[in-house]
Amino acid sequence: MGASGSGKTTLLNVLTATNLSKLSVRGSVLLNGQVVSPATMASLSSYIQQHDFDEPTTGLDSFMAQNIVQTLKTMASEGRTILCTIHQPSSHIFELFEHILLMADGRVAFMGKTG
User: Principal place where this protein is found (predicted)?
Assistant: First the structure.
């Protein structure tokens, strides 16, 4: 979570090795403690990029937005890891998240359980 320009999309681009032509990136991406190549990450994951549909609740009313996030939470409870960006969730939607990473100015402001 974070304001526009806080670095949410850049973080997802780095994790998935997507749209990096304008970035200088150092380091490795780990998956379950193991270095993972961009090709391996692409074969194990799906990335819907930022447009009207990246952020999963963009353009939806509060009822539908809550249903989408609840569906993502159900998928996570079945063993999937779900990463999504969101600007301003309602309090009801925020309560559905168990872990959050708050970003500001390209840095992590908070990372942990929502409680």
Answer: membrane
